[in-house]
Amino acid sequence: MATRVVMEALSPTMEEGRVAAWKKKEGEAVKAGEVLAEVETDKAVMDLVARGDGVLRKILVPEGQTVPVSTLVAVIGTADENISSIAEGSAPAPAPASAPTAKVVGVAPPPSARPPAPPSAPADGGRILSSPLARRIAAEQGVDLRSLAGSGPAGRVIARDVQSAPRSAMSGQPSAISHQPSATRGVQDVPLTPIRKTIAKRLVQSIGPIPHFFLTSEIDMQAAWDLRAALKARGEQYAISFNDLVIKAVAHALRLHQAVNAWWMDDHIRYHGDVHIGMAVAVEDGLITPVIRFADQKGLSAISAEAKALAERARARRLAPEEYTGATFSISNLGMLDIDEFTAVINPPEAGILAVGRIAEKPVVVGGAVVPRRMMRVTMSCDHRVIDGATGAKFLQTVKLNLENPLAMLL
Amino acid sequence: MATQFDVIVIGGGPGGYVCAIRAAQLGLTAAVVEKDKMGGVCVNIGCIPTKALLHSAATITALKHADDLGITLGEVKTDYGVAMKRSRRVAEQNSKGADFLMKKNKIEVFKGVGTLKAGKKVSVKTEAGVQELTATRAVVIATGSRPKDIPAIGLAFNGRTIFSSTEALLLERAPATMAIVGAGAVGCEFADVFAAFGTRVTLVEALPRLLPVEDADCSDALARAYKKRGITSLVGARIEKAAGQANGVSLVVEADGQKQTLDVACVLVAAGRAPNTENLGLESVGIALDRGFIKVDGRLQTTVPGYYAIGDVAGPPLLAHKGSREGMVAAEAIAGQQPHAIDYSNVPGATYCHPEVASVGLTEEACKSQKLEYVVGRFPFSANGRARTTGETDGFVKIIRGKQYGEILGAHIIGDHATELIHELCVARTNEYTVEEVELAIHAHPTLSEAVGEAALDAMGRVVQI
Asked: Cβ distance A313 to A323 under 8 Å?
């Protein structure tokens, strides 16, 4: 009876091991307990010992190669035993040696948890291992089972996998992973660009020390919708975006709630008399927040024109420093990307940021009847050192009033 | 004798010995430290001997109704002492079975009390002296639990008139009267046993029903069955105090706003168990507790790497089969495998009273409090052909089906062989079959299992046989 030699977990945290050197050659006799190979783990070089007597018939993993724990690395058998059934079809999935200089390093097993579960079926329509409940939930929610990596026995897709499926797994949505197992695409190590570094530094600064809390409000955008449509009907030069309306509404509300229009200065709080709104703009490899200055004093068309010009210059990387610094409050809008609601990270020293979701038609009870209304959810992140719950809530209430009654902003 | 092993397990109960076997299967060397007999509480003074006694009890009840089956017997005489001795033999055989399994798997057993030491060492105090063992990979703590008494109200164990399940299992004769404090699985099973042997039993439960962790419908059905058999149940009851008399105990109990005094020959306290965490050296190694139990992660590792805990000592539910499964998972994790974390909502519950009660998943109350949308499917054994042939028509199968996806939120069975019948639904729920898949399986006729199929149909609104 042949003995399978597998990469053993030689330390409690070991997920993979590199065969540093084989101490026995193919064809050499081995006894249980004898050292077969030296294995480099995450911690040290350790011995892989034989668990049975016999002849080291086949070495499947050459020196220098790294494989996940449990991978078959060699076979011990009697001198004349047929071991082909064991040795074949079990070629180890290689985990390449780390290559710090290479940009593309191929496929490495995830650093934690179980060995990578490939998507449960290839795109060729083969059988998908899945539980009946998972299939029902997937059918109902329009999730493509094929795109999911199952976490059940033998990679079976279970309910939890479907429930935690990312949107990209929804069928009908173009998705790279729904056509190609992600395991073959490798990984790409990209050095941080200066902008990415700055984003990272600033956001960590924010989420770390800032005591955040969040306020969410659902706003009826029907009136805003009608206003925008009416303006647009007058001509293209009157066209404004919902984002412009949100900027106007927020700027107007900040004027009335100076407590929110403030900076945390470590040893003091600076309340601003003027309102400068930062608006997060996605650029090719990150985001930047150009500033619409004195937004509370500007009309909708001025805000609209300025927002458009700033966004264009931001995407072209042509913003001057003074155009993206000095905001007293920021807005981040992901509505155009179909996000219902989200929380945005405060851009210090500012004390608040408003995260704006999409506008969606929803059934709403108005005067006892269910009617379709265009609703939008906004979430305000507050630095509690500056803004207290009720303070933030009152500000948000004004924003809501402004958007639900856009004419009020004219007063 | 070797003193170094890959895995050292402290405790040879259903968690510990299974853990050692699984470790051995995975090519690891394993040792078990056991201070008493192999098999632990389960085999020696728990699951196994109580089931032997319950079989005696069920047979007594059956024989008392034998006339109807065309069997004429004289007076049915009972002798608890004889039944007890048989239960001891059964327990002994099972313990020997565990001994054999240790030999078969080449697992070294050290008879003594194990204490943890830093560096994955265990010192074992045996009759011969102290032995120091070293684990190269992990130490597994599987020391189990013990019955708890309630000294605050005068119910401290004295082994004579106030005792635990352990002493109850070793009584030479059934007492004339007995109060059982706690109507969980242990309390209800002993009530069944002693009532059959002629004891006047009063169950006293603080919560508002028998078997409080089970579905309320099962509790109600059991209460009716017990009432019919002359077992008194005081639920929602508070024991004010217990006072010892020369030949018994006097309990002052308040239930339903009324105070009454129960004078009984003895009190069996079955009000919970305490984990065996003392004198183990947990502090010296730095292993943390969580609400009295050893704190473990999804793979049963304690807060100190290289030390695992399984079974009763690692937290509820305190069930042998939960401990055994934890033993397997821990062994696999120690061997470097990536075992699936246990889904504790799939651990079945089983009470072997008469009628039996078994369940898996959520109770209807839990579904309500979690605001789940569900449909209940139900089928009574009184409408089941096989049940009618034996006359065991008490009880029902109840399946709680998720409204949107048809998943089995919970399943509850009370009736003859309920503890066997539940496993069809355990397999289904564990593998995420919906109620539809359960119904799809063809159930043989005539069987009690047909009631499961019919309850599934009922949950889908198309029950046939009722």
From this structure: yes
In chain B, residues with a C-beta closer than 8 Å to the C-beta of A8 are 336
Per-residue pLDDT, A196: 64
Rounded to 5 degrees, φ, ψ at B113 are -95, 125
Give SS3 for B123. strand
Cis amide linkage into residue A111, ω under 30° from 0: no
Please list the active-site residues of B. 445
Radius of gyration of chain B, Cα coordinates, nearest whole angstrom? 23
Which H or E run contains B60?
Answer: helix B47-64
Torsion of CA A397, A398, A403, A409, to 10 degrees: 170
Higher pLDDT, A158 or A107: A158
Specify the DSSP class assigned to residue A163. Answer: H
Q: Which residue of B lies nearest to A15 if distances are taken between CA atoms?
A: B336
- Per CB-CB distance under 8 Å, the chain B contacts of A14 are 336
Suggest the residue from A67, A136, A151, A160 to mutate for an interface test with chain B (most B CBs closer than 10 A).
Answer: A136
Residue with tokens 């700027």: A251
Q: Average model confidence (pLDDT) for chain A?
A: 79
3-state helix, strand, coil in chain B (%, to 5): 35, 30, 35
Question: Chain A: residue nearest B334 by CA?
Answer: A12
Task: Give the full edge-to-edge strand order of the sheet including A16-22.
Answer: A45-49, A35-40, A16-22, A66-68
B212/chain A closest Cα distance in angstroms: 30
Q: Is the pTM of this model over 0.90?
A: no
Query: Is residue B358 a contact partner of residue B451, using CB atoms and an 8 Å limit?
Result: no
Nearest to A132 among B336, B340, B434 (CB): B434
ipTM of the predicted assembly exceeds 0.95 = no
**Least confident segment among A226-235, B145-154, B210-219:** A226-235
The answer, for B437 touching chain A at a CB cutoff of 8 Å, is yes
Is there a contact between B338 and A134 if contact means CB atoms under 8 Å apart?
Answer: no
Of A70, A113, A152, the CB nearest to B336: A70
Nearest CA in chain B to A32: B27
Name the residue with higher pLDDT: A246 or A317: A246
Q: How far is CA A29 from CA A15, A46, B22, in A?
A: 29, 21, 29
The overall average pLDDT reported for chain B is 96
Residues 6+ apart with CB under 8 A from B316: B293
Of A9, A132, A134, the CB nearest to B336: A9
How many angstroms away from the CA of B408 is the closest CA of chain A?
Answer: 9
Q: Does B336 touch chain A (CB under 8 A)?
A: yes
Which pLDDT score is estimated for A204? Answer: 64
At residue B7 the predicted structure's pLDDT band, cuts being 50, 70 and 90, is very high
CB B307 within 8 A of CB B138: yes
Say whether the peptide bond before residue A153 is cis (omega within 30 degrees of 0). Answer: no
With cut-offs at 50, 70 and 90, classify the pLDDT of residue A210: confident
Query: Does A14 touch chain B if contact means CB atoms closer than 8 Å?
Result: yes
Show the tokens assigned to B340.
Answer: 């699936």
For position A103, what pLDDT does the model report?
35
Segment (H or E) for B132: strand B129-141
Sheet holding A72-77, edge to edge: A3-6, A72-77, A54-59, A29-30
Mean pLDDT of A382-402: 91
CB contact under 8 A, B405 and A9: no
Cβ contact, residue pair B337, A70, below 8 Å: yes
Contact A174, A147 (CB under 8 A): no
Q: What are phi and psi of B21, to 5 degrees?
A: -65, -45
Q: What is the pLDDT of residues B111-133, one digit of tens each?
A: 999 999 999 999 999 988 999 99
Of A70, A131, A140, the CB nearest to B432: A131
DSSP B61: H
- Three-state secondary-structure class, residue A231: helix
Q: Using the beta-carbon criterion (under 8 Å), do A131 and B335 form an inter-chain contact? A: no
